[in-house]
Design goal:
By secondary structure, the protein is an alpha+beta fold. The chain contains eleven helices and eight strands. The chain has a five-stranded antiparallel β-sheet with strand order 4-3-2-1-5. The termini are far apart.
């Protein structure tokens, strides 16, 4: 307070009036400059195809006037005789305001650029959306961290000692928030290794759905029944993930059982019937059909084939047609399908023998 009293005592009322007018005039000039520059950049942006000038126009128009006030205050202080302490405080305030405004510009540019790139790639380039989202967050964190270090340096803190202390404290914090950090690093692993991206159909355990969002802590999957399933990234990477989108073809194995009373001649023609049923379908590649085993309820034939498309609906249409073809051919050949049955053979029972007892 004594510095303020000293500044008031060392300057006449006329000086304070001039300082006030300088502050007000500087604010008006800065506001006018913001308006003119924003309009000029916007006019240039309308005549170009690049997005950079569009971003610049929005950022300039969004410049905070209260962050320009320290500059106006600096201009007003130049008309006064003020103590060195107050002058240093104003200088520091100007530096902090400028640094903060520059950080807001950079952060806004990163947000606008990442947002536009994500919109362009959404639904087309899932990998790009995932990478851009994490890249944007990382860039913002780095910018704000640099701003904080620069401001602390201006305040007179020993940055070297501070960084060393943060390194030791970071270990303790990492132990306390290891679950959060585990999800964060898992998110980074998902982005870099790309086991799946936004838009992929995946299966995790007994849950299947489409990836809609990959965040820093969680991944959101829209299930086949419509609800949203939220996975922690760390838990997700510990699971067995099946990615159906990158599947080039689908391998199918199914079995057919016939009854034990089928004749040998019929058994010999069954593999050919099964092969023909598969090969008559489009987008199928036959692999094998064999008399596999003597099962409990019938004679077991195993069929293996490939669908040359990963589309599940196409596979089900083909399997349905194969089943109908097998059913029709078996009916024509008089071959019966097996179903769970049990035959009990009862041997003839001996008549009971009467017990005779003698008393002596």
């Amino acid at each position: 307070m004594k510095w303020l009293y000293q500044a008031w005592r060392d300057n006449h009322l006329y000086d304070w009036a001039i300082a006030g007018l300088l502050v007000l005039g500087a604010l008006c000039v800065l506001a006018l400059l913001r308006y003119v520059i924003a309009r000029a950049v916007a006019a240039i942006a309308r005549r170009t195809v690049t997005d950079l000038d569009d971003h610049a126009a929005k950022l300039i128009a969004g410049t905070k006037l209260w962050l320009l006030f320290p500059l106006a205050l600096y201009a007003g202080a130049s008309a006064l005789e003020i103590p060195a302490k107050i002058e240093q405080a104003i200088d520091l305030l100007v530096v902090v305001a400028l640094v903060l405004q520059i950080v807001l510009w950079v952060n806004g540019f990163i947000g606008l650029w990442v947002g536009r790139q994500v919109e362009k790639r959404r639904g087309v380039d899932g990998e790009g959306v995932t990478a851009l989202t994490l890249l944007g967050f990382t860039a913002r964190v780095v910018v704000w961290a640099l701003m904080l270090l620069l401001i602390l340096d201006q305040l007179g803190f020993d940055i070297t000692a501070l960084v060393a202390g943060l390194g030791i404290g970071g270990v303790a914090i990492a132990l306390a928030v290891q679950n959060i950090l585990g999800d964060l690093f898992a998110s980074l692993s998902i982005v870099l290794d790309k086991p799946f991206v936004v838009g992929d159909a995946i299966n995790v355990g007994d849950m299947t759905g489409t990836v809609e969002y990959i965040g820093l802590k969680t991944t959101r999957v829209r299930s086949l029944s419509g609800e949203m399933i939220v996975f922690a990234n760390n838990d997700l990477l510990k699971s067995r993930i099946r990615n159906f989108k990158v599947m080039s073809e689908r391998r199918i194995v199914f079995s057919v059982q016939v009854t034990y009373d089928t004749s040998q001649e019929k058994l010999e023609i069954i593999p050919g019937i099964l092969r023909a049923a598969v090969e008559n379908r489009k987008q199928t590649r036959f692999d094998r059909a064999h008399f596999k085993a003597f099962a409990e309820s019938g004679l077991d034939f195993e069929v293996v084939y490939f669908m040359t498309t990963p589309d599940y609906n196409v596979y089900m249409d083909a399997q349905q047609a194969i089943n109908l073809e097998i059913y029709r051919r078996f009916s024509e050949e008089g071959i019966d399908f097996a179903f769970p049955t049990r035959t009990i053979h009862v041997q003839g029972m001996q008549p009971p023998v009467a017990a005779v007892s003698a008393s002596g």
